[in-house]
Amino acid sequence: MAVQSGLRPGKLPVVRGFAIQIRPSEWEELRVAGIVARARIKVDFSSTHRRFVLCAEESGGATANLGHYCGFLPLAGDPTFFVRPVTLAMPNTVHADVSAASLISVEMLRYGTTYTLNIFLHWLTTAAGPDALPAHHQKLLFSAHRGVLSEPLWQEGKKAQAGVHIPAFHRRTGDPLLIPSALHEAVGAITDAVCCVGCRKSHFLALKAITLSEELSAPGVHPPSARATVPQIASAEFPSQAGKSKKRRERRKEKQQLARQAPDTAPPSDTRAGVSVVSGLQEAKP
Ligand SMILES: [Zn+2]
């Protein structure tokens, strides 16, 4: 859905619909603790790449009691990816600016030893006219709450190896909820981040860009070529995948069956269909 507004400064949309649902009392605790994790994405125009990109701030941190962090990673091979580290006076706030044609958002909230995790893929589709903004799309890659990690990573000396601890997520029936392997490194990093008391630097800068399997990715999500202004033929970029498609279709079918049996994996918001187009784009101040 294209947003009918021209390229006027100050009217660029901000996407917030993917954020973990946090109760007012929990927001108050985060505010008092001084933790600012910005689960939001702004759509902006890149003059260099002559296309719209997604811009976000990696941010967050922790106290001993709670942690909240939101990081963003590009898809492998995306030439529009830009990141710069940011250091602000206040800890537990912004650690990096990130922008790319597509982004994966990884958000985690921790109370004590209980963890909530949301991972989404975000991308844009081209607008119909030269003055229209493109549409933002998102797809849920993983969502689970009440994950458990008994290791108190927020204590001094508990982080000898970065990224090796990941909370265990289960359905209420005890069935394990498995995090896709392509996202393991990011989940390890964000687990550290929500245990990083007085966080002052990015936990995602050193991570690899993500390569999604066909079933995790979505139609229309292709890293733009280096010549981003030239429309590309979608299939030309992925010739090696044709032979594997049958096997993948079968795997996807199995996953869809599993997903239907696992209502707990649904996100807390209205994104239960998996892929959604944000309808309530909010306008940003310049
Ligand atoms: Zn940190």
Q: In brief, what are we looking at here?
A:
The protein has 286 residues and is of the alpha+beta class. It has three helices and eleven strands, in the order βαββββββββααββ. The protein has one domain (13-222, 238-283).
Can you describe what's shown?
This protein has helices at 24-33, 184-193, 245-261; strands at 13-15, 41-46, 51-62, 66-73, 82-85, 94-100, 103-111, 114-125, 135-148, 275-277, 282-283. 36% of the residues are buried. Strands 1, 2, 3, 4, 5, 6, 7, 8, 9, 10 and 11 form an eleven-stranded antiparallel beta sheet that branches. By secondary structure, the protein is α+β, with helices and mostly antiparallel strands. Bound molecules: zinc ion. Zinc ion (ZN) binds at residues 193, 196, 199, 201, 203.
Question: Which tags fit this structure?
Answer:
11-stranded antiparallel β-sheet, 11 strands, single chain, alpha+beta, binds zinc ion, 13% helix, 3 helices, 28% strand, 286 residues
Cα separation of the termini: 23 Å
H/E element sequence: EHEEEEEEEEHHEE
Count of separate structural domains: 1
Main beta-sheet strand count, sense and barrel state: 11 strands, antiparallel
Supply the number of helical segments. 3
Into which percent range does the helicity of residues fall?
10-25%
Mean pLDDT: 80
Number of strands: 11
Strand fraction equals: 25-35%
The low-pLDDT segments are: 1-6, 227-244, 261-274, 278-286
Overall 3D shape:
globular
Kindly name the structural category.
Answer: alpha+beta
Which molecules are bound in this entry?
Answer: zinc ion
**Rg value:** 19 Å
